[in-house]
Design brief:
This protein has 319 residues and is of the alpha+beta class. It folds into 2 domains: 187 residues, Jelly Rolls (Sandwich); 122 residues, Homeodomain-like (Arc Repressor Mutant, subunit A), CATH 1.10.10.60. The chain is 41% helix and 17% strand. The strands form 2 sheets. The chain has a 5-stranded antiparallel beta sheet with strand order 1-2-9-4-7. A 4-stranded antiparallel beta sheet has the order 3-8-5-6, with no helix packed on it. Strand 5 and strand 6 form a beta hairpin. Helix 5 packs across helix 8 and helix 8 runs antiparallel to helix 9. The longest helix has 20 residues. It is globular, with a radius of gyration of 23 Å. The C terminus is likely disordered.
Length: 319
């Protein structure tokens, strides 16, 4: 009997645990039960007694690594995965699962490291979707490779490092997801939601005069249907548009664009509205100074394209 594949798999699991324990401060020492954040979308979860969580439905898909103890995942009465330390798993959003967490006999603790995938990095989201949409079940365990070991460790380190730039964190997360993309157990991570598709459309032209009616018609939907579907995903049209425009503006400002130019290019005809939105999103003004500097076009000025804004100026008696 050839034991080499099993031996190699065990070696990869040990390597992954060693890399994580070395990279993340305090991870080697057992923590109390509960959730412990390590960065944006990265946390550990622990339990000190055997627990069964019935019919749990996740808001976002996740990738996890068992650190201590073992984990069982059940779907519709079928075993979807029995996981031990060093194993990597992926759980889908919106699918009722039964989860059993069993503490280690030696340490008395179950613990796992969790990457919550609230949104795909832009470089991954723009890739063609896989042919099979959604979670096909009942497998949740990912096949571990040497490259995936390093990618998981790099992603965890970058996210946990508060000083790391957002671009670096997204790059490391994209690397991990790209390596997982070929594994059927992770296929559900790349089944884009309606909100993700809308964000990609908007990101291509953030200065466009986007509206519910225009987007719904392009998708062959009614406006109310579009709103309901987005609500089921926990978001709304205005929230998506604002996030996309703010991300576009921050990229432009980081590249050296002037505040007024960034405002226009990201869809804001009113610089004062742009400044307020930017400060609400990032806690600072785009220019680092006081608000203002530009015409205020009313409470919906941020929804106007530069072309529309020019029309307003021409029609205004104060222009």
């Amino acid at each position: 009997m050839n034991d080499r594949p099993q031996f190699e798999a065990e070696g990869l699991r040990r390597r992954l645990l060693d890399r994580l324990f070395e990279s993340l401060a305090g991870l080697r020492d057992p923590r109390p039960a509960g959730t412990h954040p390590h960065g944006a979308g990265l946390f550990t979860y622990g339990a000190v007694s055997r627990e069964r969580i019935a019919a749990i439905t996740l808001a976002h898909p996740l990738i996890g690594v068992v650190l201590r103890g073992r984990k069982e995942v059940w779907f519709g009465g079928d075993m979807a995965g029995r996981l031990s330390p060093g194993m990597v798993f992926a759980l889908p959003a919106g699918v009722p699962l039964d989860v059993v967490n069993v503490p280690c006999e030696r340490t008395g603790l179950y613990e796992s490291l969790i990457f919550e995938i609230a949104a795909l990095p832009a470089s991954v989201a723009a890739l063609p979707q896989p042919p099979a949409m959604g979670w096909t079940g009942p497998k949740v365990r990912l096949r571990l490779t040497a490259d995936l070991v390093e990618a998981v460790a790099h992603a965890a380190t970058a996210i946990a490092d508060g000083g790391a730039r957002e671009r670096v964190r997204d790059l490391r997360l994209a690397e991990m997801l790209s390596l997982a993309a070929s594994d059927p157990a992770a296929r559900h991570l790349f089944a884009r939601r309606l909100s993700d598709d809308l964000a990609l459309r908007m990101a291509a032209r953030p200065d466009e005069g986007w509206s519910v009616e225009v987007v719904a018609a392009a998708l062959g939907l009614g406006g109310s249907t579009l709103r309901r579907r987005l609500a089921r995903e926990g978001t709304g049209f205005r929230a998506i548009l604002t996030r996309v425009r703010m991300e576009a503006a921050r990229r432009l400002l980081s590249a050296g664009a002037a505040s007024g130019d960034a405002a226009l290019a990201s869809g804001y005809a009113s610089r004062s509205h742009f400044a307020r939105r930017y400060r609400a999103a990032f806690g600072t003004l785009p220019s680092g100074g006081a608000e203002g500097g530009g015409p205020d076009l009313g409470p919906r000025g941020e929804d106007l394209t530069p072309r529309d804004a020019a029309k307003v100026r021409q029609e205004s008696p104060d222009a």
